[in-house]
From TrEMBL, chain A:
Organism lineage: Bacteria, Katanobacteria
Any single Pfam family the record assigns to this protein: DUF2304
Protein known as: DUF2304 domain-containing protein
Species for this entry: candidate division WWE3 bacterium GW2011_GWB1_44_4
TrEMBL record, chain B:
Xref: Pfam families: Glycos_transf_2
Glycosyltransferase 2-like domain ranges (all copies): 7-130
InterPro entries: Glyco_trans_2-like, Glycosyltransferase_2, Nucleotide-diphossugar_trans
Name recorded for this polypeptide: Glycosyltransferase 2-like domain-containing protein
CDD domains reported in the protein's UniProt record: DPM_DPG-synthase_like (cd04179)
Length: 122, 219
């Protein structure tokens, strides 16, 4: 086993251990999300310890080199994660926008005069 | 000017210009003025309070579009007839806002101030951004409207109630035009003058946020 494999495996196993520990007592909705990360880590462990596997899969898929298939799949996975996260952030901003309006306009319905200021309570 | 119209000024860090903008509007006879302070870090809020006009404060900075939407909601709740939107950077003249109201009174639901972007003094980059925004708005709405990014508008509140606005940033300008056309009201352009200062250029649309604007509109 090369030095690179030893370092990579140590880091990956440590990550996997941390993910497994977080599974304990996590709500059902989060378990699926965390398992997804755990399986990705497991796949990385497999590819680092047995690099030939990627070559076999690459050959079967007609891609050529094993490293290429790893890069392609990483790119697809990272893009999908990035898209999902941007959607989540957009959703949060949308909720924040509504909340800000609700706070800012709080009490406007009760406001009867036209001259006073309408300020949110800090 | 007091026929149940509300002037909305979205403001973010406008301590240098906000007093001048409000005083100009008052000189033109606008009585109902609402400033939406979008969580400014400077003295904008205190200056607006001292001026005695209506003030709504955003607890978090959300962008010019969000500020305008807060103002629109206020106008709907308070049953105003027209809203006049004016930028807080002092780029537009209050006399032009009055001109817009005169045109709107003739029965137009959406009137906006159209600047002559070919005038000397208008930065070339600003001309390019505005033309691109006009083209993009035309793609969205199906109708080409000149100077869609103008911040000076007079919109009927009844029409506003039909709009489904989502923009938080500068894309609100394109969205307002597109929503108006969707509701079969073609915005009427009224020629206005624009004052370009270093501050107004700094605050306005930038190439760097063009993609963000497109993303907001498509999202």
């Amino acid at each position: 086993m090369s030095l690179f494999q030893i370092i990579s495996l140590t880091v990956l196993l440590w990550l996997g251990y941390k993910q497994l520990r977080k599974l304990k007592g996590a709500p059902a909705a989060k378990i699926i999300y965390r398992l997804q990360w755990f399986f990705v880590t497991l796949l990385a462990v497999l590819l680092v310890s047995e690099p030939e596997i990627s070559s076999v899969v690459a050959e079967k898929m007609g891609i050529g080199r094993g490293v290429d298939i790893a890069i392609y799949f990483s790119l697809i996975w990272l893009l999908s994660r990035s898209y999902n996260q941007s959607q989540e952030i957009e959703g949060l901003y949308s909720k924040l926008d509504k909340l800000v309006r609700k706070i800012s306009l709080g009490g406007v319905d009760e406001e009867k005069t036209n001259t006073s200021s309408i300020q949110h309570k800090k | 000017m007091s026929d149940n119209n509300l002037v909305i000024i979205p403001a973010y860090n406008e301590q240098i210009r906000i007093t001048g903008v409000v005083e100009d509007l008052r000189r033109e006879g606008f009585e109902d003025i609402l400033v939406i302070d979008d969580a400014s870090d400077d003295e904008t809020r205190d200056l607006v309070r001292a001026l005695g006009v209506k003030l709504i404060e955003h607890p978090v900075n959300m962008g010019v579009g969000s500020g305008l939407r807060t103002g629109f909601e206020f106008a709907i709740i308070k049953d105003y007839k027209y809203v006049i939107t004016v930028d807080g950077d002092g780029q537009m003249k209050a006399s032009d806002a009055a001109k817009l109201c005169d045109v709107a009174r003739k029965g137009h639901g959406f009137v906006y101030g159209c600047r002559n972007l070919n005038e000397p003094g208008v930065p070339r980059i600003r001309r390019c951004i505005n033309t691109l925004a006009d083209i993009f708005t035309a793609c969205l709405s199906g109708k080409y409207v000149v100077d869609t990014q103008s911040g000076l508008r007079c919109i009927s509140v009844k029409l506003l109630e039909k709009f489904n606005l989502k923009s938080r940033g500068h894309s609100i300008s394109s969205e307002l035009i597109a929503e108006s056309i969707k509701n079969n009201v073609v915005p009427v352009a009224v020629k206005v003058d624009a004052i370009y200062t270093k501050e107004s250029i700094k605050k306005g649309q930038k190439i760097s946020n063009s993609l963000k604007v497109i993303g907001e509109l498509l999202g």
